[in-house]
Automatic annotation (TrEMBL):
The keyword Disulfide bond applies. The keyword Transit peptide does not apply. Keywords: Disulfide bond, Hydrolase, Protease, Serine protease, Virulence. Belongs to the peptidase S1 family. GO terms for biological process: proteolysis. GO terms for molecular function: serine-type peptidase activity. This is Peptidase S1 domain-containing protein. Residues 1-238 form the Peptidase S1 domain.
Length: 245
C-alpha cells in the first residue's frame, strides 16, 4: 500500500494473508468461514491462509492450509480480465472474525465514492525498492469511471504508456494522489466502509488486480469489479463451503 497508514488490528479482520514459504504473497477476503476471495493471478503460489493477524511477525489469529483453488473460467492472464479466484480452506475458521459482504449492487461503487484498500504489500513509491509491510496498511482512494481509467496515458521513464482498451467492464479503477495498492497487495480487498467502523458492515467491491507502476498520478490502480461476479461467487460458495453465510 502506497501513501497509506497502519490499520487498527480490529478494523479489517476479514483481510487474509495468503502465504507460502512463510511470506505473504497475496491478499484475500474472508467471505465464508472456510472461503477466501482473491485474484486469479495469485493461483498456485500459496499453501496457507492466515486470518486475524495484524502484524505478520506475530502468531496472532489462525493459520489454515489451503484445500482447493477455483479460478474463474473466463480468467484471461494476458489482459487480466476476470481476475478472480476462490480459495477453499481445509477447515472453517474457529476464531470469531467478521466476514465481509460481497457487493451485488451494479450501481455501486459510484464514481467519486471513497473506497478503502488494504494489504501487506509494497509501501515504497520508488520502483527499484520493494518494501513489504509487517503491519496491515490501508489507504482511502476515490472511484473513477472506467472511461476515464481507460483513457489513462502518460510518460514513465521517458516512454509513453496508455491503458487504452485494457479496462473492461469486469474491472473498476480507483486512485488518489500518491495513494495506491501495489505489488504484494494483489488479491486483497477494496471496500466501501460501513458506518460502524469495525469492519462488520463493510462491503467488498473490488479485488486488487493490476496497474502500471504504483502511485503514479497518470495510472490508476485497477481492481476486479466484484458485482460482475456475484452470481458465480454465490454459487461456488454454496457448493463448496461447509458453512455458507
Ligand atoms: C502487482 O504487481 C500490482 N497499483 C498490484 C496493484 C497495482 C499494481 C501492481 C496497482 O501485483
Amino acid at each position: 500500500i502506497i501513501g497509506g497508514d497502519e490499520t487498527q488490528s480490529w478494523q479489517y479482520q476479514y483481510t487474509v494473508s495468503l502465504q507460502g514459504m512463510d511470506s505473504s504473497l497475496c491478499g484475500g477476503s474472508l467471505i465464508a468461514p472456510d472461503m477466501v476471495l482473491t485474484a486469479a493471478h495469485c493461483q498456485g503460489i500459496s499453501n496457507t491462509a492466515v486470518i486475524g493477524r495484524h502484524n505478520l511477525n506475530s502468531n496472532d489469529g489462525e493459520s489454515i492450509p489451503i484445500k482447493r483453488e477455483t479460478l474463474h473460467a473466463e480468467f484471461n492472464a494476458t489482459i487480466m480480465d476476470s481476475d478472480l479466484m476462490l480459495v477453499l480452506l481445509e477447515r472453517p475458521i474457529a476464531l470469531d472474525v467478521p466476514l465481509v459482504k460481497v457487493n451485488s449492487d451494479k450501481n455501486r461503487p459510484r464514481v467519486g465514492e471513497s473506497v478503502t484498500v488494504m494489504g501487506w504489500g509494497d509501501t515504497a513509491l520508488d520502483d527499484s525498492i520493494f518494501n513489504d509491510s509487517d503491519a496491515l496498511m490501508s489507504v482511502d482512494i476515490n472511484v473513477i469511471s472506467n472511461r476515464d481509467c481507460d483513457n489513462s496515458r502518460g510518460i514513465v521513464y521517458s516512454e509513453e504508456y496508455s491503458y487504452n482498451g485494457q479496462v473492461t467492464e469486469n474491472m473498476m479503477c480507483a486512485t488518489d494522489e500518491g495513494q495506491d495498492s501495489c505489488q504484494g497487495d494483489s488479491g486483497g480487498p477494496l471496500v466501501i466502509q460501513g458506518i460502524s467502523g469495525d469492519g462488520t458492515d463493510d462491503i467488498l467491491v473490488g479485488v486488487v488486480s493490476w496497474g502500471l507502476g504504483c502511485g503514479l498520478s497518470d495510472f490508476p490502480g485497477v481492481y476486479t469489479r466484484v458485482s460482475q461476479f456475484y452470481d458465480w461467487i454465490k454459487d461456488e460458495v454454496c457448493n463448496q463451503s461447509s458453512n455458507p453465510p
